Amino acid sequence: MNRTLTIDTISKVGELVLLKGWVNTRRDHGKIVFIDLRDRTGLVQVVLTPDLAADLHSEDVVYITGTVKARPEKLVNPKLATGTVEVEAAKMELISKAAELPLPIDTSGLEIDEEIRLKYRYLDIRRNRMTNNLRLRSQVTTFIRNHLVKEGFIEVETPILTKTTPEGARDFIVPSRLQKGNFYALPQSPQQYKQMLMVAGLERYFQIARCFRDEDPRADRAYGEFTQLDLEMSFVTQDEILELIETMFTRLIKELFPDKHISRSPWPRIPHFEAKTKYGTDKPDLRQDTNDPDELAFSWTIDFPLFTEQSQDDFYYGSGKAKFAPSHHMFTAPHHEDISLLDTDPMKVRGLQHDLVLNGFEIGGGSIRIHQPEIQDKIFDLIGFTPSQKLQFEHMLRAFTYGVPPHGGIAPGIDRFLMAALGEPSVREVIAFPTSSSGQTAVMDAPSPASPQQLKELGITLADVRLSTLQKRS
Ligand code: ASP
Predict the structure, then answer these.
(1) Does residue 411's CB lie within 6 angstroms of at least one atom of ligand 1?
(2) Whole-model pTM above 0.90?
(3) φ, ψ (nearest 5 deg) of residue 383
């Protein structure tokens, strides 16, 4: 007999069906026992005799064979999609018993200690809110893929084991076994690859890309890795990039978030200076009513200064002696009419950078890129690159000597967009297995020590500080 999904029982009154799923709840009523059986489509009420139900507990996995019955009118449950029917069980097979759960799953979960939720994430995801968030996330990336492919974009995967792309954060590095003493870096973003794909002539690239940044924990970021819609276009103006994103997200909200409304269209474009003077921030929350959970206020912040003052934290740029650090990243083009200021007053140069803001969160950023090797070289000098640091980017400068189209792009964060659009308190609520804010992975206990054998193969000897941490652990 084929399996019937709980949602399909409503059209099978009078039929014998086989249901497979979890016992959601159990209610004993003397001569009969009710259970709500749960599968990926929802719940249906099942009626059993006490002997059939004898061993059943919440979260057991069961197969139930029974007849679908219409409920009498006064017993219809309007809150349940299958509330017009119930299944009268003739046979029950207990497939897998569930131990008592270490956390409740019939609440929002936000009241539970997050460490416990992440340790038992596979149970935490059973709760409605988490399942719905993950389903919506999948619909969002599917929508984006379909939309962009129709617009002539090609999805391309770029390497994870690679060389650093400086985006203003610390790299994660991976030791090489074949070339002992050398390291890969995990990409902070596919920035350099997507620019080289423009040299390659693809013209329109996108990727739902994983990015890795070893930043100190922040409330609105998952530690370590995040997902962004990375895209790049050739022969494009800043206006065209902004319009593409605005159209795509407007349609996406309409289709996938029908309860939400976008407060203002077209989205306001606010120069950085105006945002700072008027709102005191470059990511203003432009909602008319911040108590309204269904309001989405998108805006663009543009005309950022190309440089900020370099601080101690910018150690990964230049020699540490230069005054300037890029506001966005070092591939961002200066405004055409400000180019001469690079020689006279660099802090006055505006960059062709655009940040996407939603309800007070920066959910993405991008820019028109430098495509002239001599301007790129000038930027490298201004941020204090030494000749050997410049050599690390030789591939970019070389690529640009073979006919490079003017290009630009953007990378809206998928986790951050979902968090802001759903009004979730953290990005971890929209990620299946997020790393905790202290850097511990969900369910599996990483980071964890490498075995002496692994270290030996990599030619790595641990410094004393690591050894004493290990000794303390054991
Ligand atoms: N690579 C940039 C980032 O990850 C985005 C971009 O400039 O397209 O923020």
Answers:
(1) yes
(2) yes
(3) -90, 5
